[in-house]
Structure formats: C-alpha cells, structure tokens
C-alpha cells in the first residue's frame, strides 16, 4: 500500500513539475466542458425539459459526469491505455516490480487534461447543485462510486485486448460510455435502455448518481455501489487472467 | 506537376483507407452511436414542441444530425495536434524538399483519407435516418447536400491546417484542436441548428467560417433547398485557402531561416 501511495505521489509530482502546462491543459478541458453546458442551456431553453429533466437536473448530471470522468481518466489515467499496452507488449516494466500490477498501473500516471474535468465538475456542482452539506456528501460518494465503475469498465474493455488481440474495444467502450452517460437515461427506451443499465452501464455513471443527489434513496445507492463493485471485481479478474496470455513486446517503458 | 502531386497524394490516401477497413468500421460504429443518440434527443425535443422547432420537423432534424455529424466525424479529429507535432518536431522540414506545396499535398492527402469515410458514414446515416425517422424531407435537396458535404470537409481541412500553422511560432498546437472542435460544435451548427441559437450567437455565426463545415450541408439535407449555401462555402474556402497558404508560407520561411 505504501508503494502505491508513493507511486501516486510521484505521478502528481510529475504533473505538477510543469505548472504552466498543467493549468493550460486543465483550462482547455474546462472550456470544452463549458461548451456542453452552453449546449444544454440553449437546448433546454427551447425545449423546456427532457423526460422530466429540467435545466438544473441536467447540469447536475453534467457535474457528476465530469467530476467522475475527471477522477477516473485524470487520476487513473492508464485505465484508458490498458488495451493498447496489452497489445503493444508495453507492460514489461510494471510486471518486474514487486507490486500488484493493475493497482500500480492505475496510479502510475496523471492526465492533466482530465484533471480539468474534475475541477470543472466540482465547480459546476458548487454553482448549480445547491450544495447543502447533505447533498455535498451524497455528491462526493456518488462521484466516487461512479468513478470506480467507469475505471472498472475501462479496464475491463481494455483487458479484453489480451484475448482478442486488438485494442479498439477499449476505445469504443470509453467513447460509448461517456457519450451515453452525458444524457439522462429516460431519453432512451426499450433495448437501448436495458443496455445502458447492463453491458454499457452508462446509466450508473451519471443518471443514477445525479438522481441520488437530488433524491437520496438507500436502495438505489446500494444498487450503484453493487454495480461499481461488480465491474471493479470483474475488471481486476479479467486483467489478471489476461496477463497469462501477455506477450512482451520488449518495449521497456515506465508503463 | 503540382496538380498531379495533389491528385496522387489524395488517391494514395484513399486507397490506404479502403485497404484497411478496420479503422473505417470503428469510425462507423462511433458515428452510428452518436447520431442515434443525438437525433433521438432532437426528436424528443420536437415532439415536446408540437412537432416543429424553428421550421425543423423531427424527420428534418434527424437528417440534419446525420449529415452534420458525417461532415465532422469523417475528418481526423486531432489533425491540428498531429500537424502541429510535425511542425514543432521539425519533421515537416523533409516535405519542404519536394517540388510541391507542403500544405497542398497535406490537404490533398487528408481529403483522400476523408472522402471514403465520409461516403460510408453518410450512406449509413441515411439508412439509419430512413429507418428511425423517415425518408428525406425533400430528396432533391440531397443532390445539393452531397457536393456541400465535400466542400464542408475541404473548408474544415484547410482551416485546421491554418490553425496548426501556429506551431511554427508557438511550437505547440496540442490543445487548440479541442477549442477548434467546440467552435464547430456550436457556431458551426454541428449539434444544434444555427436557427436555434440565441439571436446574438446566431448573428455571430454568420461571420465565422465554421458554418461552412457542418451547418451548410446539414441544412440542405434537412430539406431546405438553398443553393446559395454552396456559394457561401466556396467563398469561405477561398478566404481560408488564402489565409492558410499565407500562414504556412510565412512559417516555412521561418523554419528555413531558424532551422527545424
């Protein structure tokens, strides 16, 4: 555990070593997120509400999504690269260390651009989320669960590359998850809705956590935690099993 | 000689895309997910507003989205960053040795790479739109939308090269593509028709080139027969070309003087 903390501290120190680059990249991502907020404001000004989701609730959903996405893609940046590293044989360095490979891999690298998402999500919640102490506590816990789920999903889709030999599944999964997660699940119907609660669990990444912040329900919170735990466990198991099929590419990187 | 170089560069790039269908399939899957979600969103919005939003029906907006997304998703999203990397690393210096315009060959190559993707996406999007919403509102407008899509891609590629040329001076264009793409998102009408923007923003978009990159073909595909949009696109292409060639030329001279 101490080793993982030290690795995480190093990753942060590495990102902070270039403060100007860090700030500019975070600002660019925050501007990117702001454009989505503008879109939703313009859209809902015209439409009124979307399947019961008004402007405040949609912006709360965006706050959860950007904060959870920022935490997952910013702090656990390698989650998105598992598939590419598996196919390219880029895991040699981490496998030679006396640490749990997946945990080390996840905390090894910070992505400054996505740290902008995290900050934006928190600021957006502070501005539009009516942050009472109770709502703030639920927001924090919901974002942590959502980030766990997202990271688990990214690792799982990436680790499939060990078995199918191509890394596109990870990138497709990533895009599908963020894209679908950006919309309230009530917009969808039928098979798509079932899909969003199961195979591509985008509903649990933003819609369910946002509902919890607005209207806390112990049963729904339990479902969110259970789904996050299931995806995290399946992802870790798939990665561990996949390592047995790993072939070195003699690419000696710091992973 | 120069024209032949452009044609060959474009043709070669097209062949490479067709010979490697894996990338095409990934783009297609990504595009279909986007247009399915976004067009669904707009159909819900139209239904909530009595079947009409600023003159667009649900069917028209579905055709709008499949076209605006085809125009933008088919273009390599990180082109600005990639061109900027080639400039800042000095790799582009090798291309200066060729007896043909660097930017011309690069735009022709990207156009060749984009056109097969554009065709595949638009056809697939059309099938999806026909299935989930209905036939195109005015089929004749599609005849104008097809050349407009090609002009949209050309305008986009030239503008991206012009922006990337900043790397000749700044040594980094890494983050610019994010902001560029977001300008196309809103003021280019990629995810929202310009008629639905607030008045000030809609007026501002009239004076920006981004509307030539998504809005023009999408407006035509949604059933509005407005051939003047093609002329507007040609005008923007002329302006962007002059600007891009001037910026690239100045950058190349700087590279030759200072060294790559």
Describe what this molecule looks like in 3D.
The complex is a heterodimer of chains A (255) and B (260). The model of chain A has no long low-confidence stretch (mean pLDDT 87). Helices cover 73% and strands 0% of the residues of chain A. Chain A is globular, with a radius of gyration of 18 Å. Chain A has one domain (2-243). Chain A is mainly α. The two termini of chain A are 19 Å apart. Chain B has 260 residues and is mainly alpha-helical. Chain B has helices at 2-19, 21-48, 58-73, 79-89, 102-132, 139-164, 167-170, 176-186, 199-206, 215-221, 228-258. The longest helix of chain B has 31 residues, at 102-132. Chain B starts with a helix and ends with a helix. The mean pLDDT of chain B is 89. At the A-B interface, helix 2 and helix 10 of A face helix 2 and helix 8 of B.
Helix content of chain B: over 70%
Overall structural domain count of chain B = 1
The geometry of chain A reads as globular
N-to-C span of chain B: 27 Å
Our count of helices of chain B gives 11
How many β-strand stretches of chain B? 0
Q: What does the average pLDDT of chain A come to?
A: 87
The shape of chain B, in one word, is globular
Question: Which terms summarize this structure?
Answer:
heterodimer, A: 255 residues, mainly alpha, 0% strand, globular, B: 260 residues, 11 helices
Write the layout of secondary structure elements.
The complex is a heterodimer of chains A (about 260) and B (about 260).
Chain A: H1 2-16, H2 19-47, H3 55-75, H4 82-88, H5 92-95, H6 101-107, H7 112-128, H8 133-159, H9 161-164, H10 168-181, H11 190-196, H12 207-214, H13 218-243
Chain B: H1 2-19, H2 21-48, H3 58-73, H4 79-89, H5 102-132, H6 139-164, H7 167-170, H8 176-186, H9 199-206, H10 215-221, H11 228-258
Helix pairs in contact in B: 1-5, 2-3, 2-5, 3-5, 3-6, 3-10, 4-6, 5-6, 6-10, 6-11
Summarize it.
The complex is a heterodimer of chains A (255) and B (260). By secondary structure, chain A is an all-alpha fold.
């Amino acid at each position: 555990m101490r080793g993982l903390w030290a690795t995480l501290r190093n990753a942060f120190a590495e990102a902070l070593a270039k403060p100007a680059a860090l700030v500019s990249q975070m600002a660019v991502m925050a501007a990117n997120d702001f454009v989505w907020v503008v879109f939703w404001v313009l859209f809902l000004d015209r439409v009124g509400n979307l399947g019961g989701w008004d402007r405040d609730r949609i912006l709360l959903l965006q706050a959860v999504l950007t904060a959870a996405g920022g935490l997952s893609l910013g702090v656990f940046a390698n989650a998105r690269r598992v598939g590419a590293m598996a196919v390219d044989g880029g895991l040699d360095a981490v496998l030679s260390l006396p640490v749990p490979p997946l945990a080390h891999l996840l905390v090894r690298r910070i992505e400054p651009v996505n740290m902008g998402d995290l900050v934006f999500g928190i600021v957006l919640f502070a501005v539009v989320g009516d942050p009472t102490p109770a709502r703030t506590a639920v927001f924090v816990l919901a974002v942590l669960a959502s980030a766990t789920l997202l990271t688990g999903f990214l690792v799982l889709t990436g680790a499939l590359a060990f078995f199918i030999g191509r890394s596109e599944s990870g990138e497709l999964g990533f895009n599908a998850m963020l894209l679908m997660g950006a919309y309230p699940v009530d917009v969808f119907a039928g098979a798509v809705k079932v899909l969003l609660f199961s195979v591509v669990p985008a509903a649990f990444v933003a819609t369910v956590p946002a509902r919890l912040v607005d209207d806390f329900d112990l049963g729904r919170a339990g479902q969110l935690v259970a789904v996050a735990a299931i995806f995290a466990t399946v992802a870790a198991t798939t990665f561990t099993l996949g390592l047995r099929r790993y072939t070195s590419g003699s690419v000696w990187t710091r992973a | 000689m120069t024209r032949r170089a452009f044609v060959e560069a474009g043709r070669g790039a097209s062949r490479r895309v067709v010979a490697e269908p894996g990338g095409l399939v990934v783009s297609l899957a990504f595009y279909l997910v986007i247009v399915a979600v976004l067009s669904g969103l707009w159909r819900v919005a139209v239904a909530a507003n009595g079947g009409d939003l600023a003159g667009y029906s649900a069917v028209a907006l579905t055709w709008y989205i499949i076209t605006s997304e085809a125009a933008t998703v088919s273009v390599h999203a990180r082109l600005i960053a990639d061109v900027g990397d080639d400039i800042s690393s000095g790799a582009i210096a090798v291309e200066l040795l060729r007896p043909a315009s660097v930017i011309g060959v690069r735009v022709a190559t990207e156009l060749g790479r984009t056109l097969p993707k554009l065709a595949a996406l638009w056809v697939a999007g059309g099938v999806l739109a026909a299935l989930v919403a209905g036939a195109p509102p005015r089929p004749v407008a599609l005849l104008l939308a097809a050349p407009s899509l090609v002009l949209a891609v050309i305008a986009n590629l030239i503008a991206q090269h012009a922006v990337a040329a900043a790397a000749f001076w700044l040594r980094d264009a890494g983050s610019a593509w994010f902001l560029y793409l977001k300008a196309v998102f809103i003021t280019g009408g990629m995810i929202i028709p310009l008629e639905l923007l607030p008045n000030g923003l809609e007026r501002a978009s009239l004076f920006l080139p981004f509307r030539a990159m998504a809005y023009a073909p999408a407006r035509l595909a949604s059933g509005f027969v407005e051939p003047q949009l093609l002329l507007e696109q040609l005008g923007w292409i002329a302006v962007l070309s002059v600007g891009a060639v001037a910026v690239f030329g100045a950058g190349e001279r700087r590279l030759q003087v200072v060294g790559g």
